[in-house]
Amino acid sequence: MNTVNPQHPHAASDYRTAMQAAAFAYLERHQAEHLADEQTLFTRAVQHLQLVLDVPQYLAENLVAMAYGELRSADCRLYLDISTSTGRTAIITDPASGLTFAVPVALIVKHLIETPARRTLRQVS
User: Fold this and answer.
1) In the chain, what are the domain boundaries?
2) Cα-atom radius of gyration of the chain, to the nearest Å?
3) Do 53 and 19 touch, CB atoms closer than 8 A?
4) pTM confidence score
């Protein structure tokens, strides 16, 4: 298993950045194979990081999730403003128009997570 040398404080960040880039590249390279089933693409990317790059499962899942978000948001100018969001409200900002949207997390859960017809990502087992 890959480990990070604690005497190099930036090594952990560099490792995560490199592994997330590898996850992004894998997702980008294989997305055409899974047009109707993104869960399989997600799972395969996690397995790739684990088996080929020796990334622990918990970290592989997190890195693939972040890479997946980057891949699917590449053409979107809106972004989540983490500094003003709370645990119950996501603040989404459009820098081009200057508009800001407050979206309750409950709505995100209701319409994206708890709706089986729209759910594409599940916990990897």
Assistant:
1) 1-75, 77-117
2) 17
3) yes
4) 0.67
